[in-house]
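User: Can you recover a sequence for this backbone? Please restate the input before giving your answer.

Assistant: Of course. Working from this structure:
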């Protein structure tokens, strides 16, 4: 059975996602908080609902950390301006 865990990223970082170091720390804390077996069937839902700003460096590092993370990460309620930054970063990382 699949388990879902939802995280409000603004409560863990801030409403303004500026520094790439903040993305690294976010995933480090997420790993510690979940404290689960990598084989465990889990989806982590990252809720971006209250995010006002995201820098390119945060978005780039977020994607890098997400790709290394041991479980499935799903973004939800991502504002259009934040989505545009993620899309822009993804284009340049290809």
């Amino acid at each position: 059975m699949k388990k879902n865990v939802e995280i409000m990223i603004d409560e863990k970082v801030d409403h303004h996602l500026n520094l790439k170091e903040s993305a690294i720390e976010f995933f480090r804390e997420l790993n510690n908080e979940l404290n689960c077996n990598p084989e465990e069937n889990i989806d982590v839902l990252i809720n971006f609902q209250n995010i006002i700003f995201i820098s390119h460096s945060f978005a780039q590092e977020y994607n890098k950390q997400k790709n290394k993370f041991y479980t499935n990460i799903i973004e939800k309620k991502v504002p259009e301006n934040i989505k545009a930054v993620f899309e822009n970063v993804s284009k340049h990382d290809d």
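That completes the design. The CA atoms of residues 4 and 43 lie 5 Å apart.
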